[in-house]
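Subject: mismatched residue count in predicted assembly?

I count 525 residues in my input, but I want to confirm that the predicted structure covers every chain. Input:
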Amino acid sequence: MNTFLKISDLSMKANFKNITVEIICILYAILFFYAALSKAMDYQKFQVQLGQSPILSAYADWIAFLVPAIELILVILLFIVPLRLFALFASFFLMVMFTAYIIIILNFSAFVPCSCGGILEKMGWTEHLIFNIVFIMLAGVAIWLLNNQKYKSNLKFVTA
Amino acid sequence: MKPKKIALIFLLGTLMSIAFMVGVFLLSEDMIHRQRDVFIRRYPHHPANKENAFDLGFKSYYIAGVGDGKIYLGNKTAPGHLVEVDTMLTDTTHIKIRLDDTDLPFRSPQVRVNPPDFYVFDGQVPCIFKGNTRDWKGSLMMKDDAYFSFAEPIDTTSVVFRAISSSTNEKILGKFTVSDSVTVSLTADLLQKQIDGIFCTDGKLLFGKELNKLIYVYFYRNQFVVADTDLKLDYIGKTIDTISKAQINVAAIDSEKSTTLTSGALIVNKHSCVYNNYLFINSNMLGKYEDEDMLKHASIIDVYDINKNTYEFSFYLYNYKTKKARSFQVYGNLLIAMADNYIVTHKLRSNQFKGMKINEVTNIN
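Triage response: the counts match. Full output below for your records.
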């Protein structure tokens, strides 16, 4: 009886972790899909906005194409289970870059551009920053959970 | 993977991502600042916002001058008539200028107000009148010394002008200095001929009162000339576009012994004004990634720092009631634009204009 309870407890924990990872992946997929789509829908506008950015304007051609492309690739990779850890890492670093971009703009650039191009335009820069940091933390949690699972199951496999 | 390894990837990856963005930022700043060929404008967050507008009833008004919290508007079709408006555009006063010699064969007299002085000139007579804004009575300051097309009074005794040289038939700059008699000094060095020396050197002559500098902004090429009030070249500045050579076609009309501009002339710098260390240029050129549609709704104003010889940033001067600004003048924190029948003021946000004297700005309103 006792052991049964323990086992169910463990599997529930594992289940909870699985579901958390799953939800975070879905959230990321929605975010990237929406972001890429909104950029692609009005590609010319996105390019113009990037061209007005103090950081990226000189590379607007490339970035206008690369960012949505990377986002779409990540959406796919996030659903391929063996590549999930890689996809989460990539998402994590992409979000770190976006966040670094916002911090640079807010603190170091000569001016703050009117729009941040694409993603959730209605948000202010500070809200955007908080939003990004939340997403970065989510990716961190998902990576940690996913890796712990793999690591422990690998350990079990080795010890068994 | 071991937890340690994961933590290491997190750390290194994060650092690299941040370093990447910082690197891109530094490179981008560099490219925008130095490599003008890229021609990318920087648009900060709304440096100019519309304040007030007033319907003057006629399109023939032009800005004759600003000073002492007042805007003076001249009228092309009624040259002796001035309108004085306060900077809030609430009070208007009509002024009649009286000249001590009205029998001259005036062709297109222009008024300049630089309180407490005002000037009336007509380069085709040629003549210059000067008077005081207390009584608005102008007396003859110069007559018949040299024909000219543009003039800007620089102090109480001298006026700079643009004229056509009688020897080379090309545009030159000059200066009248009035003491007991009138002395005329001319210089052919400031304006540089590219095609014909007449149309290719066309532009706008400005006097920066605060800097005591003359600025000549070419219409058809990406250059402006900065000179001191003795007509000595200070430097030749570059506007951000890439049109270094005037793209105009000049056709000679042999029967009239004259030349004319054929169609297709590419205007680069349409209108300009100077205030403090800032040069404001209404550019006709679109930068990379700029939306062509914007030109229907606004004029692009590029801001340069004359002291530093740098491009600072650009902003949109939005049309008023679909009417584009045909000319404008900056005074303190106000940009005063003339559009169709209207005079429209826009407030410049002082945090974008760090070089502006703030006390001067607050005095105005």
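The radius of gyration of chain A is 19 Å. Marking this ticket as 'not a bug'.
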